[in-house]
Amino acid sequence: MAVLLIVLSAYLLFWPVPIDPVAWNAPKNPGYTGSYAPNEGLAGIERLKLGAHSGPEDAALGPDGALYIATHEGGILKYDPASGKVSLFAETGGRPLGVEFDRAGELYVADAFRGLLRISGDGEVVTLANKTASGSPILYADDLDIATDGTVYFTDASTKFGARENGGTLPASLLDLMEHGPNGRVLRYTPATGETTTFLDGLSFANGLAVTESGSHFLVVETGTYSILKVPVDGAVAPEVIVENLPGFPDNINRNPEGTFWVGIVSPRSPVADAIADKPFLKKVVMRLPAVLRPAAQRYGFVIKINEDGDILETLQDPSGGYALTTGLIEGAEGARYVTSLTEPDLGILKP
Fold this sequence. Notes:
Layout: H1 2-14, E1 46-49, E2 58-61, E3 67-70, E4 75-80, E5 85-91, E6 96-101, E7 107-111, E8 115-119, E9 125-129, E10 141-146, E11 152-156, H2 169-179, E12 184-190, E13 195-203, E14 206-211, E15 217-222, E16 227-232, E17 240-243, E18 248-255, E19 261-268, H3 271-275, H4 280-288, E20 301-306, E21 312-318, E22 326-331, E23 337-341, E24 346-350
Antiparallel strand pairs: 1-24, 2-3, 3-4, 4-5, 6-7, 7-8, 8-9, 10-11, 11-12, 12-13, 14-15, 15-16, 16-17, 18-19, 19-20, 20-21, 22-23, 23-24
Helix pairs in contact: 1-4
């Protein structure tokens, strides 16, 4: 028994781990109080079956009035609200995450495995960028939005922990968040030149991104710090933190027709992760534990509505976790709201 304890202790203390943890001071969790007080706004959600597909991470309304849905299996599904029909529009061959249409009606996709893609109206998939102009590989394209001049801003969540190389988006994100390194960045794709450059780096898991109504700024989610930044596209001033110390891990952000934004909160914060945030040694110990003993996402449905100054306007929640790991919300026609998820087998729909 003594030998076993020695071996176990040596393993927990010295076995190599893939992360090089960075110490940081996690702010005190505000919990679900004040603007985040619990409600049941998502409790009555309806479900749209996706057939053989699951994990509807993001969706976008097309010029034809249909909803185009990115799924875990690599398919982009087309949902016609009028008929209720769901069909396969395209296959990316990767893991599509953020999706947006440009003014010409073509669909741009941030694919975690393949980079920045564009899909034509007939479903033809073209890779626009899988590395930057300087040769830096894009390992975890996450979300995107398109400015009025056609420029595409998109996040590369981690330049260290690639989604494909680490077994998928969730395992890669957990590694990056536990390390808390400045591995995330925002990239800029210029259609006229086909060039992709780094616009902003040094972020802790760069996630959702949405351009403001005026086009002068974009908002970007920094999941690792529970915050949202407002960034001028002309680079005239430094990014501004407009939302900080969220009670959960923020994910996608989508702009609404009136210029406000919905942000998905994929899971409540982990007390263990916050407690060891400034203790790199303990982070390594936790990484050596069996996966079932490490901090895990809690099932809780949660989206928040903000303006471009970061004011909390509304929250919709499901404390029971009936529809959970919520990544975002898209405003549809005639008052319909579509709720997306990292892992659910269905798309959530809130009808007026």
